Amino acid sequence: MNERNWTDTQENNGERERTTVYPTPLVASYEKEMAALRPQPSPGSGGSKRRSGSSFSTYVASFLVGAMLVGGFGYAADRGNLFGGGQSPAAGASGGGSESAAGIAAASVKAKGDLASVFDSAGPAVVKIENYAVPTYSMRSLFGGRGGGQQQTGEPQLAGSGTGFFFSKDGYLLTNEHVVADADELKVTVEGYDEPLTAKLVGSDYELDLAVLKVESPDGQAFPTLELGDVDQTSIGDWVIAIGNPYGLDHTMTLGVLSAKGREITIADEQGNHVYRNLLQTDASINSGNSGGPLLNERGEVVGMNTAVNAEAQGIGFAIPSSVIKEALTDLMNAKPAAF
Question: Per UniProt, which keywords does this protein have (predicted)?
Fold first, then answer.
C-alpha cells in the first residue's frame, strides 16, 4: 500500500508556508482495516464482479474505524496546533497551556464582575451636593461714587454643584471645600429619597480643599457609608473607580488606573493661586461635578477624593489621598459649626 500525505498551509511573517504532514500510525491502521473490509472477487469470476452486499458486522466495523480516525485526527491537530496559525499554545506559570488559558478567561470575567459589584455597593453612599447662594450686587454711593459695598437680595439661586460621600451612618459626609464655598444653603440628593436633604457645614479647610457636612435622616434610617482605605497599599497601575455627578449626570462611574502619586499642581481661584500637594493622578475620567466624589480601589474602599482635572489634557485627573483626609478629619469634625 502506498503511503499518502497531505499539506497544511500557514501564515508566517506575511508569507504562506506549506508544511507536509505524513500519515500517523493511526492512519496506516485505518488503511489496513478498510482494505480488509473491501469486497473480494468471487472464485472463478476472474475478479470482474463486485460482491452484491455486505454483512451488518461489516458496517459496524466501518463505523468504529471511522470514529477512531476522526478522534485521532482531532488529537493530532491539537497536539500539532495544525489550525492555530503556527503559534504554539501559550503556557502558563504552571506549564499547563489549556488550563492556564481557561484560568485567564475566568479571571477576566471575575474582574469585570467585581468592578460592577463595587459600583452597586458604593453607589448609594455617593451623593449630589448643590450650592445655593443669594445673588450679590454692588452698590454705588448716593453721589455716584464707587463705594457703598455689596448687598445680597432675593432668594438663593443654584451657584454650583458637586459630589460627596457618607463616611458615617449618622449623616456625616465628605466633599471638597470649593464645592460648598460661599453657600447660603446646601442641598444633598441622597439615593432613595424623593426630596433633597438640607445639609449643615460642620467644618472646612481651604488649603486642603476638604469639608464635612451633616444631614439628618428623615425616616431615622442609617445612611450607607464608604470606608476610608489605605492609599499606601495602592500601587501605580492598580484599577481605580470614580463615582460622581459630572455635569449633573447623577451617579456616573468611570474606570481607570492610578497613574502617579505625589503630584503637585497650582490652580487659580478667587483667592489667588491654590497649591495642591501630594495628589493622586488617575486617567479615570473626572469632569466638572465630580469634585468631592470618591476614588475607589477594587475593594470599594476610598483611596482618594476627586478634586481637579487638567482641562487642556485627556485622562489627567487628580484626587486628594485618603491619608490626607484621615489626618484632617478630627479637626474638621471639631470645627466651630457654621451658621446658615
Answer: Hydrolase, Membrane, Protease, Serine protease, Transmembrane, Transmembrane helix
CATH class of 125-333: mainly beta
Nearest to 136 by CA among 113, 122, 153, 119: 153
Cα 117 to Cα 18: distance, rounded to the nearest angstrom: 50
As a whole number of angstroms, the distance between CA 85 and CA 72 comes to 20
Separation of alpha carbons 295 and 306, rounded Å: 6
Neighbours of 278 (CB within 10 A): 13
Give the E-state strand segments of 178-330 in sequence order: 185-189, 197-205, 210-214, 239-244, 252-269, 272-282, 294-296, 302-309, 317-321
pTM for this prediction: 0.65
Distance between CA atoms of residues 318 and 304, nearest Å: 9
Alpha-helix runs per DSSP H in 133-284: 177-180
pLDDT in tens, 202-240: 999 999 999 999 999 999 999 999 999 999 999 999 999
Catalytic residue ranges: 178, 209, 291
